[in-house]
Structure formats: structure tokens, C-alpha cells
Amino acid sequence: MADSHALWTALDERLAGAALQVADLVVRPGSVAVFVEHDDASAPSLDELEQVSRDVVTVVRSELGDVAVEVSSPGLERRLRRIEQARAVLGRSVAIRREGGRLGGVLVGVEGDELIVEVDGEPQRIAWGEVREAQTTWSLGTDGADELDPERSGRNDGR
Q1: What's the CATH architecture for 4-72?
Q2: Phi-psi region at 36: left, alpha or beta (left = phi > 0; alpha = psi -120 to 50)
Q3: Average model confidence (pLDDT) for the chain?
Q4: What class is the 78-159 domain?
Q5: Which of 120, 101, 121, 117 minimizes the C-alpha distance to 109?
């Protein structure tokens, strides 16, 4: 199995200065999925995906050979693989698995190497080094409104 860290580093180097960055990477036998986003965690346009796909495919195939490559945005529920990604999604609901259990709440801050998650109205500090998995979560509210801010989601059509 390929070293996903080395591949991520190679992709970061190739995309340095580009409008998009690698948000996540999944390497499987015979295929690679690369998820890209803007620095502020917003989704790329189809034109941006098309432009960056050429570079991504070139890097992946130079590192791994002739494998299937998928390039897309990470979607609403995205894994947080780097603490920098957490800074871009402040105010969003998150689910975190760490040694000692799981918790869910709203990400209200990032200070140094700690996440601050509000759980049942109380802030909890979690060292990034203790996090085994973290991802944003999304749910449709009981009033039919989603929890995303319309401006951050790119939707401003009054819905």
C-alpha cells in the first residue's frame, strides 16, 4: 500500500499557490480519491475541479502508477485531518473520537493545538494529539432549515 503521507506531501507541493488545497485523501488498492477545497473550507466550482484534476492525476500516477483517480469536494460531512481545517469550520457541528470515547458538539474555537467544542452548553478542550477521528456533521433542523450559514454554504437564494 502506498504511503498516503508522501502522496499528500507531493500533492501539496504541486498545488502550492493554487486556489484549492487537499482536504482529504483516501488510498485504496487500484484507486485514489482526492478531496479538494478552498482555504476557508468552501467547495470548489466544477471549473476549478476540472483545472486541478489534471495536476492531481499527474501527481498520483507519478507516485502510484496507473490507478483510477477521483477528484471531488469533501462534501458537507468532511473529515478533519489537520488542525488548520478545524479553524476553517468554526461554528459547525463536529463529531470527535478520541481515546476515552466520542463526543459531539459545536466547534467554537481553536487555540494552539486544542479544539474547543461546546457540548451541552459547556466548552470542552481537546488536544489535537488526542483526536483519533474528527469530522463535521450536518443535520436538517426540525423547522426544515439546515444548520449551515447560507453565506458560507454559497446559498443566498432566500431558502
Answers
A1: 2-Layer Sandwich (3.30)
A2: beta
A3: 86
A4: mainly beta
A5: 117
At residue 115, the 3 state secondary structure works out as: strand
Contact 14, 55 (CB under 8 A): yes
- What's the length of the chain? 159
Strands 31-37 and 68-72, sheet pairing: parallel
Where b means 16+ CB within 10 Å and e means fewer, 139-151 reads: eeeeeeeeebeee
C-alpha separations of 115 from 65, 111, 128 in Å: 38, 7, 7
Model-wide pTM > 0.90: no
Q: For 8-128, where are the E strands, in sequence order?
A: 21-28, 31-37, 68-72, 93-98, 101-111, 114-119, 122-127
Query: 93-131: per-residue pLDDT in tens?
Result: 999 999 889 999 999 999 999 999 999 999 999 999 999
What are 73's three cell numbers? 469536494
pLDDT less than 50: residues of the chain: 1, 144-146, 149-159
Would 4-72 and 78-159 be classified into the same CATH topology?
no
